Amino acid sequence: MARFIFITGGVVSSLGKGLTSAALGALLQGRGYSVRLRKLDPYLNVDPGTMSPFEHGEVFVTDDGAETDLDLGHYERFTGVAARATDSVSSGRIYSNVLEKERRGDYLGKTIQVIPHVTNEIKDFIHIGEDEVDFMLCEIGGTVGDIEGLPFFEAIRQFAQEQPRGQCVFVHLTLLPWLAASGELKTKPTQHSVKELRSIGLTPDVLVCRSEHPIPDKERDKIALFCNVRPEAVIPAYDLKSIYEAPLAYHNVGLDRAVLDALGIADAPEPDMQRWIDVEDRIHNPEGEVRVAIVGKYTRLEDAYKSIAEALTHGGMANRVKVKVDWVDAEIFERDDPAPHLERFHAILVPGGFGERGTEGKIRAARFAREKGIPYLGICLGMQMAVIEAARNLAGLPDAGSEEFDHEAGRKRFTPVVYHLKEWVKGNATVSRRPDDDKGGTMRLGAYTAVLKPGSKAAGIYGTTEIEERHRHRYEVDTKYRAALEEQGLIFSGMSPDGRLPEIVEWKDHPWFIGVQFHPELKSKPFDPHPLFADFIRAAKEMSRLV
Ligand code: GLN
Fold it and tell me: What's the CA-to-centroid distance between 384 and ligand 1, angstroms?
């Protein structure tokens, strides 16, 4: 049976619980243990699929088609363990399950209450797959003291009570603010946060203290004394230049040791950190720099494209270059010529997105990249825009567009080169959708196979002709226009196994122009960069030598 590590946060939000959990997972893996990481989120959305990326950052999609929190992306990037639908849950999902059971009559005769019905549902969730791994790491979203979080804190309290001693450990992340006026780190917020935790029956075993300044021994001892943890279990967490320094940095200050000690594990093997030593070496010793423009809509918040930003970094690591990313608002090109805005970049990436706003600008960016021979990677909407660009400007379809935008506007304006997919094949089953279906969880989601054209650039990059990539979209490029587009040199180099859905397109006579209907960024890792990103940055590096 697994041991359970619960990670909670206090004082303020955004302290990096996700990263800390991911790094701890990587450290335990380095010691030869198997791990799985989970996120329990107190918000009431059933999943983050319907939340604005401005509010909540990107939606991370799992192979089995769940729309989950972006922290699951960190977990995968640090551990390489593919997340599953059962690794992410929210209050909304928990309540929805409980209410469904209530309607079905599963609790017949009972009054449904937070304790025990909601807390039992949370505990059942934590137990899923417990026999498969040595360590199950469960991060509780939000901050201790939040009203929505209470059922989760209560559930993990009960959970630990029900386990044999030494099976569960509580790691609490806090902040030590620095008061410039008096030149001191303040421990009081941490003390209060622990007091808050203890008032609901939870005692942290390990405290991870974020701090912008070195924590003197005196302060560490004070925290230990007042918060009732061992001094060696007060772990400093200083700001890092790169998130990928976190595993080694945390190891050096004893995080994994403190967690193992709290669990009474004295015979853990020393960690093999070679993977992270190599990752750090590549990050800190680049041999050049490439500039990449991300032409998108949600450019105000980097978290909206978290996985893309990370995958570009990984592509840089594969080529030993630093990737300097600039976020360019697509709407600029609706007024301005793209040239002055895009000329200085060695590569252009148009990411996924929803809705019409900004799309004319993305189409112009795709044209600019095609005509100027600049490496272009179009992801999902970015591929759809590249195809529309080709249809309009080369294949004689000046009104080419996406049905998505006509649906949004409520009137028909475009030739639907990109159309609303209503039926497709998943494994051996057929999935169908209606245009008026619910918005939540009704897209073509999760891993699908694509078959690549032998001899194409895509097949060369992947080194195989069958791939599996994750999807999250409703609309598809219509193969009705394939012949007309291929005549112009746009190769359909990846298709769904039944040949109906275009998965990859590429320009024949272009140094590097690829559009993909899926999200390769979700599978990239620092120690295993995604081949498309590695080759995209290789092409950008070549470009940087030319200009
Ligand atoms: N909005 C487009 C669709 O639904 C693209 C989605 C995306 O880029 N993830 O097909």
Answer: 8
